[in-house]
Amino acid sequence: MERLYNRFSGKSRIGVFVDGPNVLRSEFDVDLDDVRSATREHGQAVVTRLYVDEHATPELIQAAEARGFEIVVTSGDVDVKLAVDAAAAAARDEFDTLAIVSRDMDFKPVLETAAREGVRTLAVAPGEYGRSDGLQNAAHTAITLE
């Protein structure tokens, strides 16, 4: 019911899930502040998670926490953990819009599942070179960070 209220009131709760190893690479030069700004245009972030593997530097973790991101460190595949968490949160009605920040086509089923649950979807690419057309086409809205 809250999802319907938010749609009619114009307010949207956004869940932002960042695929750290796939996005935070030197060739993309992605700034987490830019991620927050790009998604803020679509509503208020109520979940902001950065998924990293065990090789993430303490500096990266500290910088992400300083920008309000919850850090999820995995010892296995980051994609699997992020996908399961995002789909589960969408099913629990934690947000109205799911933003996946990645260039990985593996997240297409997550966007499709969320859409079937009535959640708007947003694919955020880490630049023109890092854009997955398949992922962008699976989402209701696509953003490419500059």
TrEMBL record:
Q: Which residues form the NYN domain?
A: 13-146
Q: Which GO terms describe its molecular function?
A: RNA nuclease activity
A Pfam family: NYN
Query: Which InterPro entries is this protein grouped with?
Result: NYN (IPR021139)
Q: Which PANTHER family match?
A: HTH OST-TYPE DOMAIN-CONTAINING PROTEIN, SLR1870 PROTEIN
- Output this protein's name: NYN domain-containing protein
Native source organism of the sequence? Halocatena pleomorpha
Starting at the broadest rank, the lineage of the source organism is: Archaea, Methanobacteriati, Methanobacteriota, Stenosarchaea group, Halobacteria
